[in-house]
Each structure stands twice: as C-alpha cells, then as structure tokens.
Amino acid sequence: MMWKEGQNSCISLGVILGVVLLTGLMRVTFRRRVFSTVTRTFVAELLATFQLCCCSHELQVLVELGPSNPSWPLTIIYFLSLVHGLTLVGAVSNPCGVLEQLALEQMPVGMSILKILAQMLGAWFSRTFMLWIWKMGISKWHYPERALKCTNPIHIALPEAFLVEMFCSFIFHSTMMHFQEIRLKFRIHLQAALITFLVFAGGSLTGAVFNPVLALSLHFQCFQNLFYNYFIVYCLGPSLASLILPSTKLSSGAHFIIFLRKGHHYHETLTTKNSGKIFVKSLLLVVFGI
Fold first, then answer.
1. Domain assignment of residue 124, yes or no
2. Number of folded domains that form the chain
3. Angstrom distance (rounded) from CA 19 to CA 76
4. Mind telling me which residue stretches traverse the membrane in this protein (predicted)?
C-alpha cells in the first residue's frame, strides 16, 4: 500500500516536472522566434500563468497523496514556489501585481490589459490541459471528475473570507516591495517563505490564494455555482488590496516580522471556532500595527 502511494506521488511530481519543462521549452522557442516586444510579453505572461495554475492543480493531488503531517503540504508549497521564482522571472502571473504596477504608474493601461488577458487565457488553458492529463488516468488519483466538482475552500463567513484574502494579498505585495533591493537568489527564498507562511496562516480558512486567475482556474465550478461570493472573496478582495497599497505609507515589513515572531500563538488560536475573526485581527496587527 505504501509503495503504491509512493508511486502515485512520484507520478504527480513527474507531471509537475513535465509542466515546468514543457513551459520552459515553449518560452525559449517563442523567445528565439518572436521579436515583437508586445507578443513576447503576452506569451511570457500566458505561459507563466499556465505553469502556475497547472502545478497548483497537481499540487492538490499531491497533498491528498501525502502523509497527514501538516508540514508535508507546506514543504511542497515552499519548493514549488522556489521553482516558480526561478523559472518565471519577469512575469507577474497575478492580476493583482498588474493592478499594483498600474496604480504606481509603472505600467501603461494598454500593457496592463494585455497582461491580464494573457493571464486569463493561461488559467483557462491550464484547466483544459490538466483535464486532458487526468483523463489519461496515469494514476488512480487522476480522473476528470476532479476538475468538474466544486470543493468549497471557504470555511468562514463571507466578510471574514473577503478580509483574509485582501490582507494576504496586501501583506504579500507590500512585503515584496521591501524585498526589491535584495539580490534575486535570496529574494526568491524570501518570497517562497512568505507564500508558505500565508498558506500556513490562511489556508484552512480560504485557501490563501490571493490570485484571482489562480482561484478561477482551481475553483471554476465554484465560481459557476456561487459566482458573487467567489468574485467578492477571490477577485475583489485581493485586487482592492493591490489598489490601496500604493496610497499607503506603512511599514508592513516590520509588522510582518512581528507577526512571524508570534506565529506559534496565532497558529494555536486559529484552531478555535472563532478562527476567522482571530486571523483578521492578527492581520490588522501586521498591516496597521494595532
């Protein structure tokens, strides 16, 4: 039994590796054959989002296959975030990042629309591609029904879920602004650690996605069934955080470090029935220092 589970885990890891290699090959091919800056930007953003979403789909399978130890999914998320950080340099693959650059006047409106469109196409292609992979039935955990059912990741009230996703997005983007001056090889590890921590803190509440196109790819069926709820939580919340970020002059990085130091206390309190309220209050500490 253990051997079979290990075999299935290796298959899922192989699928992730295959997606990364395929995306990398397509990126190099387009870079050599396409000389238009606009087309290159569009393709790079599409492929980056495609890789991110495909790997996240297979990550869900891998988490189900792994041991019950909570450190297992966090370890996988950390190393997968490192892979994305190393291979997707220069791409945003998140509409919130595009909106942030637009609000900071670092990107023209036309380019912003182009990137968001590329991201949406990448997310849609990822669902189609993973459905095709799962239809092949390489392992018993690969079946097309995975992509056709809604597994609701929201386990708290809608207003609290909205705040959790908004604050996760705010913390991620504001902290990454503080990391810009750090050398790339160190910044990638800090980014992976930050993503892992946010998933650790908010994953049991909303999934801690803080990326609208990734949420759309992962939970498309849920968007169809409860569109307004999911739009508010996974699109409006993170996007609002990105738009208000440039207008704030807060030392979020310092508050985030305080939050990390008290992480054990927050993890214990998140197991209570008031987890959503406690998490929101703790995130207010990170953002506003209150």
1. yes
2. 1
3. 16
4. 12-30, 75-92, 113-134, 154-172, 192-214, 226-245
CB 16, CB 80: distance < 8 Å = yes
pLDDT (tens place) for every residue of the chain, 290 residues total: 454 556 778 888 999 999 999 999 999 999 888 888 899 999 999 999 999 999 999 998 888 876 666 788 888 999 999 999 999 988 999 999 999 888 888 889 999 999 999 999 999 999 999 999 998 888 888 887 777 777 888 889 999 999 999 999 999 988 888 887 788 888 899 999 999 999 998 888 988 899 999 999 998 888 877 888 899 999 999 999 888 876 664 444 444 444 445 554 544 444 444 555 544 554 454 444 44
Separation CA 207–CA 152 (nearest Å): 10
Measured distance CA(288)–CA(290) in Å, rounded: 6
- One-letter-per-residue 3-state SS of 84-97: HHHHCCCCCCCHHH
User: Is 284 part of a structural domain of the chain?
Assistant: no
Q: What CATH number did the domain enclosing 244 receive?
A: 1.20.1080.10
Taking the CA atoms of 9, 11, 17 and 22 in sequence, report the sign of the dihedral they define. negative
What the block records as the tokens of 62 is 């891998």
Alpha-carbon dihedral angle through residues 70, 75, 81, 86, given to the nearest 10 degrees: 180
pTM: 0.82
